[in-house]
Design goal:
Elements: H1 6-13, H2 29-38, E1 43-47, H3 48-58, E2 66-74, E3 78-81, E4 98-100, H4 107-120, E5 132-134, H5 137-146, E6 153-156, H6 160-165, E7 171-175, H7 176-180, E8 184-191, H8 192-197, H9 199-218, H10 220-230, H11 237-244, H12 258-267
Parallel strand pairs: 4-5, 4-6
Antiparallel strand pairs: 1-8, 2-8, 3-6, 3-7
């Protein structure tokens, strides 16, 4: 969206003109949520679990309520480990430390809780929370590859999980697609207040997001080149292209598996308010899509 100027293209088409857009990189769902509530960010891209946490907490407060603008990617979160004895979640010990982007609220943290609940039962969903450490993806990758820190496992998305699994001595513990199927891992949202004040702008963003994910699907090589130029952690173009072609990863506006997150989080008490359907948490422009 940034490289192709897709948002400016859409705002021009809707009569808003060529607006100035600033793209910020913020690591960790909790930090992203805080920035949105503080008004530092107007539109954010984050993990679905963290968004649902914020949606439930803000429900009923007109100044803070949030709404989803669309999915962008659905795919696998992978838990990797450099501890050769850690073949499954049952092998995690008190000596192990698991890196996640943000404790409890990040996508990695919630996927880990869901995997733990599937393995040990809902009542045990937080069984490994005390072993998690909040680290941005690049720092967690560096820790895993160095083998000189306390971090012995990491719950990560692509390309970071690929970087680790290509390294000798690091193996997969689980992949979320194998456990839960395709679920939206990354999505965009804004506040209801911002949407109400800027209806054309938010509609333009939805259109730009749709154009962006469709571009990736149709132009994978160029998409990989754009990613390589923009990424802070550098990877060869061929490696990024391998990830984009992974059948476990797909780029789509359609919200997938939202209710899988919501049902789990409500069952274990992480959400006090549960949406009746995925449509409750996404803008009406998406309601004709085959979401779930």
């Amino acid at each position: 969206m940034e490289a192709k100027g897709l948002l400016q293209k859409q705002t021009t088409a809707t009569g808003l003109g060529d607006i100035k857009v600033e793209f910020l990189l913020v690591d960790g769902g909790n930090h992203i949520n805080d920035a949105v509530l503080a008004g530092t960010i107007d539109i954010a891209s984050t993990g679905t679990g963290g968004f649902l946490t914020l949606w439930a907490k803000a429900k009923g407060n007109p100044k803070l309520e949030v709404i989803g603008l669309g999915g962008s990617a659905s795919g696998g979160m992978t838990m990797t480990s450099r501890n050769p004895a850690m073949k499954s979640l049952r092998d995690v010990t008190e000596k192990d430390r698991i890196a996640v982007p943000g404790i409890k609220t990040s996508l990695g943290a919630i996927i880990l809780q869901m995997a733990v609940a599937k393995e040990f039962g809902d009542k045990e969903y937080a069984r490994l929370d005390h072993l998690t450490i909040s680290l941005p993806y690049p720092d967690a990758v560096a820790a895993m590859l160095s083998s000189k820190t306390e971090i012995t496992a990491h719950v990560a998305s692509a390309p970071f999980s690929y970087m680790e699994l290509d390294h000798p001595g690091i193996h997969k513990v689980f992949n979320s697609v194998e456990l839960f199927g395709h679920v939206t891992t990354i999505m965009a949202f804004t506040t209801e207040q911002f949407r109400a004040a800027n209806p054309k702008l938010t509609a333009s963003f939805v259109a730009a997001l749709k154009e962006a994910v469709e571009f990736i699907a149709a132009n994978k090589t160029e998409a990989a080149q754009i990613y390589v130029r923009a990424a802070r952690v550098k990877s060869p173009e061929g490696e990024i292209l391998r990830i984009i072609n992974d059948p476990d990863l797909r780029f789509t506006l359609v919200p997938e598996g939202v209710m899988i997150y919501a049902n789990f989080m409500h069952r274990v008490g992480l959400l006090k308010v549960k949406p009746a359907t995925w449509k409750d948490v996404f803008v009406s422009e998406l309601h004709g899509l085959p979401g779930n």
